[in-house]
Structure formats: structure tokens, C-alpha cells
Amino acid sequence: MSKMTLGSYPHMLGFEQLERLLERTAKSSEGYPPFNIEQTSDHSYRITLAVAGFSEADLSITVEDRQLVIRGRQADDGADRVFLHRGIAARQFQRSFVLADGVEVGEAVMENGLLHVDLSISRPETVVQTIQIRRG
């Protein structure tokens, strides 16, 4: 049985880019850091990542090709330290979230080891367009 793609459905035209976004996001879905997504109103969401040990300078938030990308990279200051046990890893991460049309990224706030990123949704007006038929 062959894999069905969005492009193989005859009524879904122009969704190839969305399919690529979904595939790319699925590949980057490791489990670190853990996160929550909550709906804060009818038109807004909040993504919260557990980023204990990261400072604001260690984190970057970008929107790339309709994806919200959150990256973290800590400077490894362990060169002059001797650990008997190292259970808190200083590792880098990247989390990606696909954004639908009309989703805007608002502010980002660090609080008690949690990074909150607020999103809002603007609903476009429904537009009805009449196409004239001409005789060929």
C-alpha cells in the first residue's frame, strides 16, 4: 500500500508546503525539554517549556517558514569543575511548532525556570469572490 500525501487528494490544492512542514516537525520531536500547550482564550495559546538552568541569553526564539523555533544552548563551564555525579545535563535543544495562517507570536517571558511564549490567532474575514465565466 502506498503512502497517501496531501497532494494526492484531488480537492486539496497547494498544500505541499504544509506537508513538508509537518514532516520536518515530526522529525524534530525529541522529548527534551518537556512542554505544555494551553488555550488561554478563544483566540490565544501559550506554549510553556521547562528550561531550568537556561538563562534568557542561552535561548533564542525565531519564526522560520511558518514554524516557531525555540533553541537553547548552554555554555559548558564544566571544564574547570569536577563532577562526582552529573545528572543535570547542559545540552542544547531545538523545539519546532508549525504555525497556521493567522497565528502571530506575541511575547516570551521567563519565570521560575519556565519559558512562556504567547500566541494569538487573528481570524480573517470570510471573502466571497465571484468568478465571471466568459465564452471561449
From TrEMBL:
This is Small heat shock protein. Pfam families: HSP20. Belongs to the small heat shock protein (HSP20) family. Residues 26-136 form the SHSP domain. Gene3D superfamilies: 2.60.40.790. Keywords: Stress response.
